[in-house]
Please model this.
Amino acid sequence: MSSPTARWRQPSVLPGFPLAFGLTVTYLGFIVILPLAALVLKPWSLGLAGVWSALTEPRVLAALRLSFGTSVLAALVDGVLGLIIAWTLVRYEFPGRRLVDAIVDLPFALPTAVAGIALTALYAPTGPLGALAAKFGLKTAYSPLGIFIALLFIGLPFVVRAIEPVLQEFDREVEEAARTLGASDFQRIRQVVLPALAPAWISGVTLAFARAVGEYGSVIFIAGNMPMRTEIAPLLIVIKLEEFDYAGAAAVGVAMVVISFGSLLAINDLQAYLAQRGRA
Amino acid sequence: MKPLFRLPGVAPLLLVFSLAVLGLLIVLPLGVVFQQAFAQGLGAYLTPLRDPDALAAIRLTLLVAAISVPLNAVFGLAAAWTVTRFEFRGKTLLLALIDLPFSISPVVSGLVWVLLFGAQGWFGALLQAWGVKIIFATSGIVLATLVVTLPFVARELIPLMQDQGWDEEAAALTLGAGGFTTFFRVTLPNVKWALVYGVLLCNARAMGEFGAVSVVSGHIRGLTDTLPLHIEALYNDYDFVGAFAAATLLASLGLVTLVVKTGLEWRFADELAASRRH
Model:
């Protein structure tokens, strides 16, 4: 009995739809959609060829390669560390377990600029860990390794928090069944637990990766910011803005968004595939 | 709970490894902040905090959070009411848009406002004619902060309100309560801890935001430098004690946030979003 124009929404006894929906959409329109439209449209003032040459500039390519490369690496290492930490936190009882569990969230709570200068103080050649690494011939701060360390710090909680609930609610009957069938501990982990954890693990690693790609505050202090070597893509956007190259900055911004979303979509598909296989 | 897979043989090994990673990667940087700040004694620690530029930065940080957190809290409530109480086409798109700020770089979240309101931006000329300054001013900093912190409250409320359903609201309405009465006397009390939780995280991010704010601020000391930007300025001047002293304020904010957040998770686990229960 609803009018044809209202058919996009199912009737409800609850009030407030026009107000709440209107507020939500207006706010999103002003804070998210309008700004993103400006971002997506701006680069084309350079023309197609201009955008292409802005993006294939060696310095831009180097920055994108560095940002995405170190982010993938850091997210994967976080994946390994996070899996072990989540396992320890969920499966073992030890004094102070809840405190340790709370500490995992520290990188979420610590502002990035604070993390940035703290990591730099630790890993600079004069810092305790930087000096230690130098003894082994490793340069930590002001090198891609420093960027990797900062991204490792930022991404770790994403993996732990993604895996923990799944490990906790893991179907005990499945574990039991595997045991009764005579599987050894490691067999059960490899063939039963890990496949079931895969979707959550991938979510966590993906979140860590997405965060790492865009990360700015914790990285720029430790990176050293040398063009072509340790200059991350977000910093290049800032530099282009300071040179009043708005279109160039927007082009790098769009490239980052497109590559990120492309990889997120691909990972999403992989995850759906794995989830289906895990169920079968 | 007695878990089955415990790998008893390697337990100590895994425990030591986990604690070592967390200690080295996460706890040590926090400790360094305080160690560096107090490296030259209490006097040297307090002096940079009494600096007028530092006080201005603290005031601006508080002001920006005081404007942006309530706005995003109201948005979160409206969005959660819309998404969890009604069925309409385009809901998935709406949810994706709410999450979007989490998957774009903070620097991009600042850049978009320069493209809109900067001197060469879409509305740049218009704003100049009106004499309104947004970029390199407080309003630009607020806008950048709004984008970055937009999802926090909504994301906390939506899963919880989805779980709770709307039986209680329907009951209140049947008994003759008005829409607003129902919202304030039924819905809000049901989600109050989740709202506090979301506001807490939103506030921590608003006060600590660096990348997005850095792009729109213009870095005018004593005027458009927020606390994180003030830290950067001091650090770049090689005033390490000053930078770390200011950093202790933000680190303490982070610690307080973490303690309150953990407290909420322990006490009110059932009244927070399902995804956070542990």
